[in-house]
Fold PH domain-containing protein.
Amino acid sequence: MPEFVLRPSLRHRPLVLPAILIVALCVVVGARFGWPGVLVGLAVAAVAIVVPLTGYLRRARIVVTPSQIAVRGLVTHKRADRDQAASIVRAVIVAPRAPKNDTIFVLDRDEKLLLRIHGIDYPTADLDRLVEVLGLPATTADRPVTAPELAQRYPGLVPWIQRHPVMFALAATLVIVVVVIPVAVTITLTIIG
């Protein structure tokens, strides 16, 4: 079997809002220094958007060879031996204020997670071809599911942070209140005093 490679497509990613926020922030900060500042702000915004996006598009891919399955992102690279792969679970995961994420979980013989493939940047037809190329028994959720629903049916597939987003947000807020604010107050009092 020849190497099978999938590359992401940005047509599926809602990048407009973050891009607008980055541009607006850079322009507002730059506007404090007049027209030259606005131009510098636009240049910084262009670099802040174009460089990571170009890096992601050049590096990100899913590669299936006769011996392994590899998933590469901008900074991550996960791989598994094809011999260990025994089955696939495919589900469209929905979360509040987030786009639907067609996700493929590759499992071993003990139904433990080998790889998680986020399909948000890939067309559905490409993910269908990926499942076909892998040639493993596949279970597909009959409807979009939440992370807790998927975790209930397949324990260990979904990380804690995704199953409990509210508890994670509360824990992060607690850390900010307990650690960051006292440190900021201490530094402020040190500078003033």
In short: The radius of gyration is 22 Å. The beta strands are 4-6, 61-64, 68-72, 77-81, 87-94, 101-107, 113-118, 138-140, 145-146.
